[in-house]
Amino acid sequence: MENQKKSAARPTLDGITLETIVTQLSVSLGWEAMAAAVPIRCFSHDPSVKSSLKFLRRTPWARAKVEQLYLQQ
After folding, report:
1. In the chain, where are the structural domains located?
2. Pick from 63, 68, 72: nearest CA to 19
3. What digits encode the pLDDT tens for the residues 33-56?
């Protein structure tokens, strides 16, 4: 019962694709702010959704940071 309460209070990423996350962050924050929050090259050098998705799908630690950034928004 207690675990259900904790998960209900915390936002989740169920049903939200990584592409949606990256796209929404790039629109709301901009690439420069994303690069400051998560210092990865695909955000700071010639950024695009496509290059970011390619990197984030191969790099679990970076993906976790981007998902956390999205949840904080």
Report:
1. 15-72
2. 63
3. 999 999 999 999 999 999 999 999
